[in-house]
Amino acid sequence: MAPDPLPERTRTILAEITDMLVSVVGEELLVVGEITCATTFNDDLALESIEFVALAELLQQRYGTSVDLLGLLAEKDIDQILAMTVGELAAHIDRVTAADPACAG
Prior knowledge:
Elements: H1 8-25, H2 49-63, H3 69-74, H4 78-83, H5 86-99
């Protein structure tokens, strides 16, 4: 069996994002299959803007104001937003929380 290429911290963040997505969208989200780093918010999950806002609020409750999903989206063009993956968000959270350990709580 090949080792999991994701660091444990990133796997933990991915699992937390998955839980938040289920909380925002509902259990039917799990019908799409396993959420991985390659899962896209647009094509795979079909997240609506209101769901992004709800996810952003949950991320800030969990990780603090340093994790600003809406700010991250504002830095991207429309094609980048449409192609954004759960893994990209997990990596962003990992970077931000590693830079500010107080928000990793």
